[in-house]
Amino acid sequence: MVRRPLGNHQYGPDTLLVTSDTAQTDLVARQRAALLRDLVRNARVVLWDFDGPICSLFARHSAHRVAAALRRWLRERGLRELLAEVAQQSPDPHELLRAVYCRRPGSDLVAELEERLTREELLATAGAMPTAHADPLIRTWTAVGSRLAVTSNNSARAVRAYLANRGLLDCFAPHIYGRTQDLGLLKPDPYCLNRALTAMGAAPATALMIGDAVTDFAAASLAGVSFIGYAADQERLKALEEAGAQVVVDSLDTLLRAVRET
Fold first, then answer.
1. Which residue of 76, 132, 193, 249 has the fewest CB atoms within a 10 Å radius of its CB?
2. Checking phi first, is residue 7 left (phi over 0); if not, alpha (psi -120 to 50) or beta?
3. For residues 261 and 76, what is the distance between their CA atoms, to the nearest angstrom?
4. How far is Cα 178 from Cα 176, in angstroms, rounded to an integer?
5. Cβ contacts of residue 99 below 8 Å, gap of 6+?
């Protein structure tokens, strides 16, 4: 079923929050629901972001503590000046990694820092929390014949470890595309999406991306791939709406119903 967010409020002219709990019968709501069904029906390939739509990777292994540990490692080597002011305070380890990459692209330092982050992500997989309805949605989409891939800024090793723990690896393998040591190719660059499309022999028009960040939407747009946003909270909803995402769901149950219906 479909409703507008916050008691029938529209989040801009082109975005509707699609949810699973309240029917909305006005024309715009029906048009947006129809768009979601069309996107699902036409998707032969589904590209998933990882941390967010599939799971909360740092649910127990705090991203804030990971970022603090990486900053401490840089300070101990007298390299704190490599971090811009925002990166010195950010709880996002990926932002810290980008900051060092901008100052030392292609260096051994960046390679070492990326490997340290990968190890932390691998540790985090043990306590990662699956996103509600993600597992059955992945299995159902696979069962009806769509091919799935992960296109993520996280380490492909961590993605594989999590999927293996959940018994989901066969739904994606071998199409798992994480970050490389060339951090300039992280989303919003569409590099990992293009890798997936090329490897799967898929045209962009046959693909759909599920992501929860503006960088996911930007990468999908640059790759010519349709996009459905997943917003676990109002902050993400607003960010995706302002970026121009046309369809956003606040529960993957909405997508699961659409896959089963189409």
1. 76
2. left
3. 56
4. 6
5. 82, 83, 84, 86, 87
Distance in angstroms (rounded) separating the CA atoms of residues 124 and 65: 11
Q: What angle do CA 117, 119, 121 make, to 5 degrees?
A: 70
What is the sign, positive or negative, of the torsion defined by CA atoms of 227, 150, 112, 75? positive
Which residue, among 62, 20, 53, 236, has the nearest Cα to 135 in the 3D structure? 53
Using CA atoms, how far residue 1 sits from 17, 29, 149, 203, in Å, is 11, 10, 27, 30
- For residues 43 and 147, the answer to whether their CB atoms sit within 8 Å is no
pLDDT for the residue numbered 7? 35
Here the tokens at position 223 are 């790759």
User: Across 136-206, where does the E strand assignment appear?
Assistant: 147-151, 176-177
Give the pLDDT band (50/70/90) at residue 84: low
Question: Smallest Cα–Cα separation from 153: which of 176, 131, 175?
Answer: 176
Round to whole Å and give the CA distance between 73 and 145: 46
Rounded to the nearest 10 degrees, what angle do helices 156-166 and 108-125 cross at? 10
- Tracing tokens 């699609």 back to the chain, one arrives at 18
Task: Give the position of tokens 């595309």.
Answer: 177
As a whole number of angstroms, the longest Cα–Cα distance in the chain is 61
- The model's pTM is 0.87
| Cα–Cα nearest to 50, from 177, 150, 149 | 150
Reading the block at residue 183, the tokens are 């951090």
Q: Which residues contact 259 (CB under 8 A, 6 or more apart)?
A: 40, 137, 140, 141, 144
